[in-house]
Write a structure and sequence with these properties.
Elements lengths: L5 H19 L3 E4 L6 H10 L3 E4 L3 H15 L3 E5 L3 H4 L2 H10 L3 E7 L25 E4 L11 H14 L3 E7 L36 E5 L5 H9 L3 E4 L10 H5 L2 H6 L4 E5 L6 H10 L3 E5 L13 E4 L7 H5 L5 H18 L11 H15 L3 E3 L3 H9 L7 E2 L10 H7 L6 E6 H6 L13 E7 L11 H4 L2 H9 L6 H8 L2 E5 L2 H14 L2 E7 L6 H20 L1
Helix pairs in contact: 1-2, 1-6, 3-5, 3-15, 12-21, 13-14, 13-20
Length: 550
């Protein structure tokens, strides 16, 4: 029997990592072209069990991987070459960390003897992402004498990403020549009982007025269960089947006083609403955090009790303890229904588009068309959370660090085959143009771009009133003039331009019929500023509340 060469050992090692990751559950592998990563890329491509996504730009590719993992809820691997290619992933790793998205970040590296001597594409990749990863693992140069450890390394890395819900860096030093045929792989690991089950969640809320706040990561079954047992469940834009319009209603002092609950339940991430946070501090009621999939965000320090466990729908007497005051839910439902009747005029087909009416049209489309929605940061996430009906389909957003980087790439990654609708601002779109290089491989995607001349979320901040208009526009609004039609043609996407609700409805329906990749420029009416329009909506809400409570 011949002794394998070092390149053959290396090829066998790479194949073993991929095989063990597949056995653990890995199905999607994102590959960026590069030389040093060749053994890893070939191993993944030749395995046969993976869906391979080849993306050119590492930054875009990493956010694409975030989107895939958001949609699948299982780890997604991304393989990149050495040097700045690995550094390009850092923003997405930070997003995955705070959003609790499982990623296997596989960075090819030069061997130790090429470090510190000026070798090209060589830099220090040890603990490259610092504390943002759940685990850093440097495999060392593959050594056949330690082949019995290879599967264990793969298992450790995958399990850390899956169980701890976050990114893991696997740094793999590789030697030349980079192409060789693998030999027989080490035997599969013996299955072990890894059941680390926690007790089921238990809570006694009988007869109380319960307000549950469901953020990103809340199980849909928990939302349904709480709602069916009398709790009022409000949520961020990514949480379907929750009570809508809470932000604008809570801006009314009289409503906030009347709506004061006996108990607040917190799950998952934070909604975008600052008003909700202010009311929680004012109410001074018990706030229980349900830790299901990691810590509950609590920057305002309002949580008074934490209950940890796994969520399984209670039955029998255990379910009885979760029965809240149904009259409280009926009261909320009545005023929400009254508010919905008042804002239906925003959906008038011939009406000029505002960010709010465009968001309502998009949500209505995804609800009816059964397509998932990916929402950009800044204004789109707030329009959906504050002013649209309850979402009934899956909604995704990069709510970890809440940045605008890579949003379009993540939307492409979240496509589950049915197509996805993305809704972003013009600056968010411009920030991620490289995502479109590989757009045709992403399947049907409709990207609705709010074209309102820059970053108008800053209009809601103190900078707007404290700075002169020229300085504010130059440093914060930062309008950019992009020829979206020419850009769409260059990347092979369909292009639409709409200025009314009816036109947006028709274009979205046409995209479904044609299963296309498209850019939809929503020309927002700028004769009334977004701040003024929101103020009008809030005044209308206050009037509705006053009539309801009288």
């Amino acid at each position: 029997m011949s002794v394998p060469s070092l390149p053959e050992v290396q090829a066998t090692f790479a194949a073993t990592l991929c095989d063990e990751w597949f056995e653990r559950g890995l199905r999607d592998v994102v590959i960026c072209p590069g030389s040093r990563s060749t053994p890893l890329a070939l191993a993944a491509a030749r395995h046969g069990g993976f869906t391979i996504h080849v993306r050119l730009d590492e930054r875009s590719a990493s956010f694409f991987a975030v989107g895939r993992a958001l949609a699948s809820r299982i780890p997604v691997a991304i393989i990149v070459t050495s040097g700045t290619a690995a550094a390009e992933l850092h923003a997405a790793v930070c997003e995955a960390d705070l959003a609790r998205v499982p990623l296997l970040v596989v960075t090819a590296d030069r061997p130790p003897w090429l470090h510190g001597v000026g070798a090209p594409q060589t830099m220090d990749q040890q603990n490259l992402y610092g504390s943002a990863v759940r685990l850093f693992l440097d495999t060392g140069v593959a050594d056949d004498a330690h082949r019995d450890t290879w599967r264990e390394m793969a298992a450790r890395s995958y399990d850390a990403a899956a169980s701890q819900r976050g990114p893991v860096q696997v740094n793999v030093p590789l030697i030349e020549p980079l192409i060789a045929e693998p030999h027989t792989l080490p035997a599969s690991l013996v299955a072990t009982d890894s059941d680390q089950s926690r007790p089921d969640l238990s809570l006694d809320i009988v007869g109380q007025r319960v307000l549950a706040i469901a953020g990103t990561g809340t199980p849909s079954s928990l939302v349904t269960f709480l709602s069916s047992h009398g709790a009022v469940v409000i949520g961020d834009a990514t949480t379907p089947h929750t009570v809508p319009y809470f932000d604008t209603l809570l801006r009314s002092e009289s409503f906030a006083h009347a709506a004061r609950p006996d108990l607040v339940i917190r799950v998952g991430g934070l909604p975008a609403s600052k008003v909700l946070g202010q009311r929680l501090q004012q109410w001074q009621v018990p706030v229980v955090a349900l830790e299901i999939d990691g810590p509950v965000a609590d920057p305002d320090r309002v949580v008074t009790q934490t209950v940890s466990g796994q969520w399984r729908e209670p039955t029998g007497s255990a379910a009885d303890s979760w029965t809240a005051d149904a009259a409280y839910l009926e009261w909320w439902s009545a005023i929400v229904a009254r508010y919905e009747q008042q804002v239906l005029g925003l959906d008038f087909a011939a009406g000029a588009l505002t960010e709010t009416s465009a968001a309502r049209a998009v949500v209505r489309h995804v609800n009816d068309g059964h397509r998932p929605l990916f929402v950009g940061s800044s204004m789109p996430i707030r329009e959906v959370e504050w002013f649209t009906p309850s979402r009934t389909q899956k909604v995704f957003s990069n709510r970890g660090v809440n940045g605008i980087d890579g949003v379009v790439s993540s939307a492409f990654g979240a496509n589950d085959g049915r197509g996805v609708v993305a809704m972003v601002g013009d600056l968010t779109f411009a920030h991620d143009l490289s995502a479109w290089v590989d757009a045709p491989a992403s399947g049907p995607v409709s990207v609705v771009v709010f074209d309102n001349g820059g970053g108008h979320i800053f209009d809601f901040l103190p900078q707007k009133s404290l700075l002169d208009e020229e300085t504010f526009t130059t440093l914060f609004t930062t309008p950019r003039s992009l020829n979206l039609e020419a850009f769409a043609s260059a990347v092979g996407a369909r292009y639409h331009e709409v200025s009314t609700v009816g036109e947006l409805d028709a274009v979205l329906a046409d995209d479904v019929a044609n299963a296309s990749v498209s850019i939809i420029r929503a020309r927002v009416n700028t004769t009334v500023s977004s701040t003024d329009f929101h103020a009008w909506l809030h005044r209308s809400s206050a009037r509705i509340v006053a009539e309801f409570l009288s």
